[in-house]
Amino acid sequence: MEPVTITAAVAGATAAFNTIKNMIAAGRDIESCIGDVSRWMKMASDIDQAEKQSKNPPLFKKLFAAGSVEEEALAAYSAKKKLEAQRQELKTFLNMSYGPQAWADLIQLEGRIRKQRKEAIYKQQEMRRKVIEIIVAGILILTITTLLVSLVWLGITY
Description:
Elements: H1 3-25, H2 34-55, H3 59-64, H4 66-98, H5 100-157
């Protein structure tokens, strides 16, 4: 996930978090803001996945865009810290408003959402990344082989 995408995920998570906070502060129950909670959790899941990807970047990114790897890792770390603060504030707010069971219910919902997203989205992204790496490696091997064959052919003919 690129730093711009991480920034967008943080912005989306923050917007959803502020909406949840405002709705609960206005006396609305957690069920009425379930869409915003779900949106916040999806963004949180995307940020967690970005952090995991920044710890294990693709081979070609390591070789040819090393600076962006560090930038992406810092962006993911910063986003994760902001998310942790939001999570703690949301936990405190829910515990004070609805009791400890509300937080447990929210964690259960978050687990289901993460599992669904992991199965649906993240596996596709990982597969796409591997296919691109294989294609680029194949092109690189083909190019090197062509150059070597050309050099050998030139050496034989001259």
